[in-house]
Amino acid sequence: MKLSQKSDAVWTSQQDEELRRQLAAGRSVNEIAIRIKRSPLAVRTRIKKLGIGEPKMD
After folding, report:
1. What is the dihedral of CA 17, 20, 22, 28, to 10 degrees?
2. Rounded to an integer, what distance in angstroms lies between the CA atom of residue 9 and that of residue 57?
């Protein structure tokens, strides 16, 4: 049986908007991940899926 993890959760429109704000503020993927309680991989994947820009390298 697989345990549910936060990283398995569906992204909400509010989280997508927060991700956009954090990127616009120049935050790194790791900083964003900490702030929105997601893994850096989840953040990079979402950035790519939304096509909202190149993540800042950490």
Report:
1. 140
2. 25
